[in-house]
Write a structure and sequence with these properties.
Layout lengths: L15 E7 L4 E6 L4 E6 L3 E6 L2 E5 L3 E5 L5 E6 L2 E7 L12 E4 L2 H10 L11 H15 L2 E2 L2 E3 L4 H12 L7 H7 L4 H12 L3 H18 L4 H7 L5 H12 L3 H14 L5
Antiparallel strand pairs: 1-8, 2-7, 3-6, 3-8, 4-5, 4-7, 5-11, 6-9, 9-10
Helix pairs in contact: 1-2, 4-5, 7-8
Length: 266
């Protein structure tokens, strides 16, 4: 089903409802929830997903898992999507939080094929088998660490949002502590309590999230590294490889190769 409102088919007694939607650049889906869990896959462009827990950056050929009832907002930058809306009892992932998932070539093709599934598909036929395989592949999909949790403390959350808008790897925790009128020790403890990670790790995650769209839009490794405050392209590349398992250049090449080899539409 293409460009069909979920409300028209949400009531259908099937574990999966599959919908494909095209969004113009700059589209924002304001905060909302779904009764079903959702796997939102962007075949082109970039998605930025905000929840009450934080912000996820979703590059092409990745998707975001949204648990049932999770309040979220999505910014679309030239995205063509496939969405799976899954009954909570059939959800293949147990995490209570959102996750950015790697979409393998097999899962990509399954998602493309799902656009041809009617809402009331034959559970014992081909579409039923396709739905079951989609659930298996979602269960096995590895997660990417492209997430920066937001604290609940209003003042600290404001600083974090400002940083996400202009990330810099050498932003100092003592400067943040000073702005909050706290000692550095108190700030460090507060930051970990509020986000579940140290300031240094969170800062790196935020810079990585900023790097991915820059690289995929054609910015060089050197320019990206310098814009984010890294001392050298090598230092930036080392961080990127450590977190994502491949160099920035290899990451961009892999995405580009998928875009060339795999069709974008059924």
């Amino acid at each position: 089903m293409l460009n069909i409102p979920l409300a028209d088919v949400d009531h259908v007694a099937r574990p999966i409802v599959a919908i494909g939607t095209d969004y113009s650049p700059g589209t924002v889906l304001d905060f909302h929830t779904h009764r079903r869990a959702q796997f939102l896959y962007g075949m082109t462009g970039l998605m930025e997903v905000d929840t009450d827990d934080g912000t996820w950056m979703v590059p092409p050929y990745s998707g975001v898992w949204l648990p049932a009832g999770k309040r979220h907002r999505v910014r679309m930058n030239g995205v063509s999507t496939r969405s799976l809306y899954i009954e909570p009892l059939a959800a293949p992932r147990s995490s209570p939080s959102c996750e950015v998932l790697v979409v393998s070539p097999l899962l990509h093709h399954l998602l493309l094929a799902s656009a041809n599934m009617p809402a009331l598909y034959d559970k014992s036929g081909r579409d039923g088998a396709l739905a079951q395989l989609l659930l298996y592949e979602l269960q096995l999909a590895p997660a990417l660490p492209l997430f920066a949790p937001l604290p609940r403390d209003p003042q600290l959350a404001s600083l974090c949002r400002d940083f996400l808008g202009q990330p810099h790897i050498h932003s100092l925790p003592e400067d943040w502590a000073w702005q909050l009128h706290r000692s550095q020790r108190t700030f460090n403890r507060l930051f970990r309590q509020q986000t579940g990670m140290s300031f240094a790790v969170w800062r790196q995650q935020a810079c990585l999230m900023a790097a991915v769209p820059r690289l995929l839009s054609g910015s060089s490794v050197t320019r990206t590294a310098l814009e984010l405050g890294y001392d050298s392209p090598g230092a930036f590349s080392s961080m990127f490889r450590k977190v994502l398992g491949q160099s920035p250049t290899s990451f961009v090449r892999a995405v580009t190769r998928q875009e060339e080899e795999l069709p974008n539409h059924c």
